[in-house]
Design goal:
The protein has seven helices and twelve strands. The longest helix has 22 residues, at 277-298. It is globular and about 55 Å long. Residues 1-29 have low confidence and may be disordered. By secondary structure, the protein is α/β, with parallel strands linked by helices. It has one domain (4-13, 35-298): Metallo-beta-lactamase, Chain A (4-Layer Sandwich), CATH 3.60.15.10. The two termini are 22 Å apart. Helix 5 runs antiparallel to helix 7.
Length: 303
């Protein structure tokens, strides 16, 4: 995952959502300025939707993990891309013959503009309930303003009325069950989502790993996140211990998603399956975190 703060010079986000697309829902909230979200070009690069495994689909742009979980009683969307990304996601749903109004929940991995950037628009299009880690509800409602690390640099359309969930909470939508794993650090409400998808009577645990990176973060003496170090350490341990048959992530590079997809496309049927990926990602992120923490502590916490 490329550090968010280093991507400020990339191309501008797509235009604001167009309420004339015929979604059947109310017009989406006004988008933030097109250049408000730091991103790279892949974050708005079109990608045809496709089945990952069983009832789990990729429905976002090439460079971001936006996932759909389908169920007879209603569907679940995970994340909403950058500001202006909703039309692409809606179009991908329709390509799969999914009526956006059948999406009942939008789960948020964390309240940064590259994942929550167009959640407000998608909520308006679908009528879905937005669900996020309890500690990110306020940050979502503020549209990313007063972020503990980024302050007001990366705003997005405010997401009002999101439902907050806590660690271990099990969400039930008919026969579909999604488990909440709080993994704070990257944001205070950063969340890892886990569910089961079945294909040909083979059921796997899928995990959308919450980001564990700390790009250009103030790790020492941060008054807006005083528990940051303990939060990260607990999250590294938690993610490393998860059952993780098939790892997904908000950024594909976190778990080599496209490399695994390429091997599957070349005929390696189980290329997406690797139960070591959650642990490997957590251990790598922990190593990077501790190195940066030691550097900042050596400088007396000054940046």
């Amino acid at each position: 995952m490329r550090p968010l703060i280093l991507l400020l010079l990339a191309a501008a986000c797509q235009p604001a959502p167009d309420p004339s697309l015929g979604s059947g829902g109310p017009p989406p909230p006004a988008a933030q300025p097109a250049d408000a979200c730091a991103h790279d070009a892949s974050w708005t690069e079109p990608q045809e939707p496709f089945r990952i495994y069983g009832n789990t689909w990729h429905v976002g742009p090439r460079g971001l993990g936006v996932f759909l979980i389908t169920a007879p009683t209603g569907h679940v969307l995970i994340d909403g891309g950058v500001p202006g990304g909703a039309p692409m996601i809606e179009a991908n749903l329709r390509t799969l013959d999914i009526n956006p109004r059948d999406v009942k929940w939008i789960l948020v991995s964390h309240a940064h503009c590259d994942h929550a950037g167009d959640v407000a628009a998608l909520a308006a299009i679908t009528g879905a309930e937005v669900i996020a880690g309890m500690e990110d509800v306020e940050l979502l409602a503020g549209g990313g303003m007063d972020d503990p690390q980024y302050a007001d640099r990366f705003p997005f359309a405010p997401v009002i009325g999101a439902r907050g969930v806590t660690d271990g909470e099990i969400l039930q939508l008919g026969e579909l069950t999604v488990t909440t794993h709080a993994s704070p650090g990257h944001t205070r409400g950063n969340t890892t989502w886990a569910w089961t998808s079945c294909e040909d009577e083979r059921c796997l645990q899928l995990v959308d790993v919450g980001s564990l990176s700390s790009p250009d973060y103030t790790l020492v003496n941060n008054p807006k996140h005083p528990t940051l170090i303990a939060d990260y350490e607990a999250s590294f341990a938690k993610v490393a211990a998860l059952r993780c048959d098939l790892a997904l992530a908000p950024h594909p590079g976190m778990v080599d998603f496209w490399g695994r997809m390429a091997r599957r496309d070349q005929g390696e049927a189980d290329a997406l399956l690797d139960p070591t990926l959650c642990r490997g990602y957590a251990e790598s992120a922990r190593e990077n975190f501790r190195a940066e923490l030691a550097r900042q502590q050596g400088e007396g916490g000054e940046r």
